[in-house]
Design brief:
Strand content: 25-35%
CATH class of the largest domain: Mainly Beta
CATH topology of the largest domain: Immunoglobulin-like
Radius of gyration: 22 Å
Number of strands: 14
Shape: globular
Number of domains: 2
């Protein structure tokens, strides 16, 4: 059967809550408000939380379980015994987190897996993250929080779709909308040729299509942790990374990744 369609799927990858770029992980303010983001702190490397782009000043920082993590900042925080609710002495815009050898505090409880919550209070809002200790080579060592107006435009990715039996073919100028899938719009292309690309790009497009299927069936919800990891993997593939590296750096389960590839390549 001839390949008669070339579809362009607009998936809001960078519109997601997180994007990997080298050793930096970027999130946007509203995405943090809508999602409880997990941060890994690698042993021997640490992690910075950078608020310079938002213009916010860090006032206070609390760690639920301080037995495994310590932090410092690039400026002063508000004094804990201060009377003013909005102190003027705070000048910190960046936090540095690091793993420490576990300390036993008689009056404190600790989590069973070493993870905990960190709360960052600024002069504008409150941020909460889950901290998880990690070992080995880090996927990122810096978290940059940016205002929503700096969010890039969506990436345009393409995938090849073969004709399905019993489905009416739309005209070349028709717009095909995938129902029940958030943030996915498929637009009919007037070209009959499939754009050439690398193996990694084809894999990325297959994962995009597979994610659309999983979202439609309610198996991966938009904005969930798995959804964000999948989108990180897609971006890494489009940057020319191998499947193995995309899986490792995004943190996605290998089984989930392979299943999305399979779904995405199924006619």
């Amino acid at each position: 059967m001839k390949k008669i369609l070339a579809l362009a799927a607009t998936l809001l990858l960078i519109h997601s809550s997180q994007v990997l770029a080298g050793s930096t992980r970027t999130v946007y303010e509203k995405d943090i408000d809508a999602n409880y983001i997990e941060l890994k702190v690698w042993k021997g490397y640490g992690l910075t939380i950078n608020l310079m782009s938002t213009g916010e000043i860090i006032k206070q920082v609390w760690i639920g379980d301080p037995t495994r993590f310590a932090f410092s900042s690039n400026g002063d925080l508000c004094p804990k015994d201060g009377d003013e609710s909005d102190c003027t002495g705070a000048k910190a815009t960046v936090l540095f987190l690091r793993q420490i050898k576990p300390i036993r505090f008689p009056a404190l409880t600790s989590s069973t897996d070493g993870s905990t919550q960190i709360t960052v209070l600024t002069n504008q809002k409150q941020y909460q993250f889950k901290l998880t200790p990690a070992t080995g080579e880090p996927s990122y060592t810096s978290l940059v929080i940016k205002p929503d107006e700096k969010k890039p435009k969506p990436l345009l990715v393409s995938r090849e779709q073969t004709q399905s039996t019993g489905v009416k073919k739309p005209a070349a100028s028709e717009e095909v909308i995938v129902p029940k899938i958030q943030n996915v719009v498929i637009v009919r292309s007037t070209s009959r040729s499939v754009p050439s690309g690398s193996i990694q790009r084809n894999d990325a497009n297959a994962v995009v299509a597979g994610l659309a299927v999983a979202n439609r069936d309610g198996q991966i919800k938009s904005g969930s942790t798995t959804w964000n990891k999948v989108q990180d993997a897609i971006r890494l593939l489009r940057q020319g990374k191998s499947r193995e590296e995309a899986i490792s750096r995004s943190g996605i389960s290998k089984a989930v990744f392979n299943q999305l590839i399979e779904w995405g390549k199924t006619p």
